[in-house]
Amino acid sequence: MRFHTRKWVKPEDLNPNNTLFGGSLLKWIDEEAVIYAIIQLENHKVVTKLISEINFISAPVQGDIIEMGIVATEFGKSSITLACEVRNKLTRQQILKIDRMVFVNLDENGHSKPHGKTKITYVKDRLNED
After folding, report:
1. Under CATH, which number does the domain 2-127 receive?
2. Nearest to 39 by CA among 1, 76, 71, 6
3. Tens of pLDDT, residues 67-98
4. Which of 34, 47, 50, 129 is the most exposed, having the fewest neighbouring CB atoms within 10 Å of its CB?
5. How is the chain split into domains, by residue range?
6. How would you classify the pairing of strands 54-56 and 2-8?
């Protein structure tokens, strides 16, 4: 799993327990995951269909730097399934794990559309396909 996006836990991200508010973290994850899906499917019309059980393992505090890792685990006809892990950047302590996030590829009318993808690809490789 590759870890790319990093977030700094700031005062406005905290809950009454002075730890990272789960809703903020889930928003960051959903945004990061849909960007990953858009890049993999090469279509900006992608929506979240399902997020499986969310396993909160530890609670970041103000000042922590966290990083999100996402990887494609399955390609359906019009969907892509991702797995996600969040960890503390400095200590590598696991913060959260999601086994399945399913995103659906859409056409211009908002209906599911086959994407024809079968494996993870990278933009740098697609640019060199000429």
Report:
1. 3.10.129.10
2. 71
3. 999 999 999 999 999 999 999 999 999 999 99
4. 129
5. 2-127
6. unpaired
